[in-house]
Amino acid sequence: MQSGPLNWLAQLAAVTRFGLMSLPQRRGSVAATVFGIAGVVLVLVGVLSIASGFRRALVASGAPDAAIVLRSGADSEMVSGLSREDTRLIAEAPGVARNAQGALASAELFVIINLPKRSTGTDANVPLRGVEAAALRVRDHVALVAGRTFEWGRNEVLVGVGAAREFAGLEVGNTIRVGRESWPIVGIFAANGGVAESEIWTDAKVLQGAYNRGDSFQSVYARLVSPGAFRDFKDALTANPQLNVKVVRQADYYADQSETVSRLITTLGVMIAGLMAVGAVFGALNTMYSSVAARTREIATLRALGFGRGAIVVALMLESTLLAVGGGSAGGALAYVAFNNFHAATMNWQSFSQVAFAFAVTPHLLVQGVIWATGIGLVGGLFPALRAARLPIASALREL
Amino acid sequence: MSNEPEHRGPLVQVAGVTKMFHRGSEDIPVLSELSLEVARGEFLALMGPSGSGKSTLLNLIGGLDRPTQGTVAIAGDRIDALSDRQLAAWRARHVGFVFQLYNLIPVLTAERNVELPLLLTHLTKAQRRSHVATALAIVGLSHRADHYPRTLSGGEQQRVGIARGIVTDPTLLLCDEPTGDLDRKAGDEILNLLQGLNREQGKTIVMVTHDPHASARASRTVYLNKGQLSTEPEA
Amino acid sequence: MKYAHLIWGNLLRKKLRTSLTLLSILVAFILFGLLCAIKQALVGAVGLAGADRLIVRHKVSIIQLLPENYQARMLRLPGVELAVHQTWFGGIYQDPRNFFMQCPVVPVEYMAMFPEFILPPEQLQAWLATRTGAIVGRNTAQRFGWKIGDKIPIMSPIWGRRTWEFDLVGIFDGRDKGTDTTAMFFRYDYFDEVRQTQNFGKGLVGWYTIRVKDPARAAEVARLVDQEFENSPAETKTEPEGAFVQAWANQIGNIALIVAGILGAVFFTILLVTGSTMSQAVRERIGELGVLKAIGFSNGQVLGLVLAESCLLSLLGGGLGLGLAWLFIARGDPTGGLLPLFYFRGQDLFTGAGLAVALGLATGAFPALQATRLRVADALRRM
Hints:
A: 50% helix; C: alpha+beta
């Protein structure tokens, strides 16, 4: 045989082809390995899609040119408190966008009520938010999908689609009873999958009255003239001696809120999938070792004929990797079909209330899955391939 | 020796036995209305060309298979009428096998291989060890008891096979081409052993072989051709 | 047992293959242990709830406060043996990530309500003698390296927006394996006095726990309590402690389902991998199995041998895996604070062992049945 890279590639192709042709004979163990790797990728992508879905719900809420103002030292609206005067000063600060009606700032109130969850029948916490007129404009993508918006000054509420999905009885026309109060539901709104969809909104003034809050609020949501205006806005407020506030970008605020849950799920998900991957490597090694053992004579013959060691090693690793990638892709595809957009809700530890989100099988996750599968295939094929390369030809040819 | 009440008459009685094999949609008769008797203490050689049904006949005598028609009686017991489970128990008690390819279990030592049939009895560990030692002594392999088959020569492996075949002191010893895979010298050793077992210990032996040197050691030879027995080789 | 050599010898036949299969099984069972611990960490409290305790909270949500004088009114109701209150302090120790519960309580009656918190009597006395005293659970004390006598600063954004300083006078342990020892408790009288200066929450507490005289009549007592406060400014919702904790766990999500799903995927995979290996191993030995049958081994015995081999492998791998899982879990929370109650339940260990046996039987069944269906004559020819 002539030497040269082209010839080497031809050898590689030939050996690989023989390998793939002999697959049907070994279909039992091959199927086991492929399923094993598919399982690893399915679990990895599935669990991580929970974290990415949760993060997406929270991040979708954060407009880059919007800010949230809380009392200094509060890391969530629940423990924050601002007076009417405070909110006026905040709305007047430099950088706040304005329209014909005035500053695009909404002073808001945040309380929690209990409603029964559809999936379990047990009570869970739902945010009830009191807002001002600018509320729809200080957040992105908020739109009515059913009914109408509430009338100012009345006990009416607007329910987010996420909340409507997770909790029983939240339909237009129904009434929520909270203590002595009745809150008729007049409409449903969507917010591009963001956190607002898990909330119930009403007029801040009405909520203040119902909860004896006087004229105090908990936060101000403000739309800025541009993302760059944040710096000035923040500086002006923190420098103001009459105010004692904490100013954050909406995006950062929500990212912070999702951090705990995301971190937990990601840590656990990687730990679990990592262990499964180790198990899959053992399974792949088993398959490839027995595959090499079954083809000992064939491989020895090829080597006796002049096929190079290198071509055989690479061919075997290629075979193992192709199988693994096949399994991994199948697992990823299955994860996408089974989990993508699966609706669920979990507790946001900062606000102790439910956040509705959807599992998100992102392209990034699918790529990660394929990378893991490739890694498993490479490791699973390496050692058996090396063993095949080191076969003593003469005795291997005689082997029964 | 055997504790059973002495059975009068031939030890092996094969009467009118036919054995059919199915190949696709065809039924091929391997044995046709064959009858054979083997007396107690005989050393019988079964010869014939390949495909003549010798191994099939041996399997029927050894209770490894049942005839399509006809009867097989060993020491008066109609083994063709036994269920599978009864046959297994019967084989354990009454038959020892010696195979052409030795058929030793590679993960067991020589003595553990010989012990195998004894595991089916109620003997204690000490009793089993004693029987194994005796069997290995008879075949002259006591010094190789703890060796694995892969470290034994062909002849030695076959001797372990014979030890295994006699360790339960069976009524009948059945050998399927015992020297088929051995060279002349090793083969002669095996045949000496078998002859010794027959002459000195009175073991009844039925041996299938295609080698005239082997059949010469037997007390009687019958020939099988196209499923029929005769006392003469094919003309 | 007399077949030991045969079974063990078969496993050692191809050492590499057996080791790799063993390792796969081992990993699967480490995962099992890990997932059980995670599930316990998230929802385990349900099993440890007191059967004779009810939680009384504000009907609207637990965030709302209840009047302090409800305690006396509840004690007058028939069937109520004891009633204590506690309030969410919501404080931060150095960093919001160092989360643990802090509550002001009335010491003696609170410890009487929760006998699973074990506090040495002299420490209880010290607490009664120190107005700014606080006790903390072993878990949190170890986490931050606190010792009795330390001064603990806690910043509360809700109560006074200032840093409160407490004297650590006691460390309590849990009676049961899963008892939550992360909380910190301090004196209600000190708390009430300091919050007088704030115009917020005077005379209000977070929620109540009551003990019923007869657990069988718990539902009835719950109804009585809610009726007592119906139509008052702060209506109550009373439910058994177990139901309350379950509802809380449900808010996190259907953890049990997710864990079961992952375990299902893991075990399905391991079943395939190990089953395929066993099938291959048996197929290679058809001739030998034929010899055994020729010698006189019955179908049942051959089946038993194959199953014994697969079960031995799976019990070895499973046992080692569960053991390693146990060692890892004993080290505590692997997430650095998010799962403080991380432990391996005894009954989960048993379940794991049972699963190992089931795995052995399942992976051996198909090849074992194939072995019994062997016709001896055919098998011998394939030796």
